[in-house]
Amino acid sequence: MSVLLLTLIILIGAYVAGLVGSLTGLGGGVVIIPLLTILLHIDIHYAIGASLVSVIATSSGSAAAYVKEGITNMRLGMFLEIATTSGAIAGAIIAKFLPVNYIAILFGLVLIFSALMSLRKKVERIQLHKSALAQKLKLNSSYPSGDQTIEYGVNNVGGGFLMMAFAGIMSGLLGIGSGALKVIAMDGVMGIPFKVSTTTSNFMIGVTAAASAVVYLQRGYIDPGLAMPVVIGVLLGAFTGSKILVHSQSNKLRYFFAIIVAFLAVQMIYKGITGGL
Questions:
Q1: DSSP class per residue in 22-91
Q2: Total-model pTM
Q3: Does the CA dihedral 25-65-231-43 come out positive or negative?
């Protein structure tokens, strides 16, 4: 296979990954890694390195829009990034010593969990109670909703911080944004409104990925020839997906593509168990 043909295949695959990732809300990283490892038989460490670069690119683009709208809680995001970046570096270091088969199985399990999380009913809860630690750190905030401004409080800061550290480890170890875990930490543990949780998570994902990408870069696992078509394809796919969502029934699309993601997850688990990677 020529270099040009391989690059074209990766570009098309990354476009599909970005499209599916955008429609399911999981990001392109969760799809591009199975495509690269299962279909093209690329070493999973190089696939993770390319995925991390694409996560940085997509997060940087979409996060800017949410920050401009005033929905993202930047102070909270920067505080929790201490946990996620520390966890991401730890996860990237662990990846060096963890067998490839174990990484594939863990990736598949996290992928199934993330797909299920993308289908859950979104409930916008407003927490008015404000913990003492959140007040001291000035983490409580508000966000615009129509013509009004909705204030909310932050609780269980310690529990959310620990959950973020775990999300960071998974991100560095598997090369994904771990958006589902970050949303659980903020929405489920800290009682932050779902809209704020998702936008703040998106803001944090790029920084988390950048921290672990440094470790992969030092080890030579980020190949420009692989990362370039992956980034371009995922960005174009994510842009197309955002346009499709505006003019379609998102629930049906989410169910359809969540099945695809679950299928890829099962394949990763199977390959990990049988030693096919």
A1: HHHTS-THHHHHHIIIIIS---HHHHHHHHHHHHHHHHHHHHHHHHHHT-S-HHHHHHHHHHHHHHHHHH
A2: 0.81
A3: negative
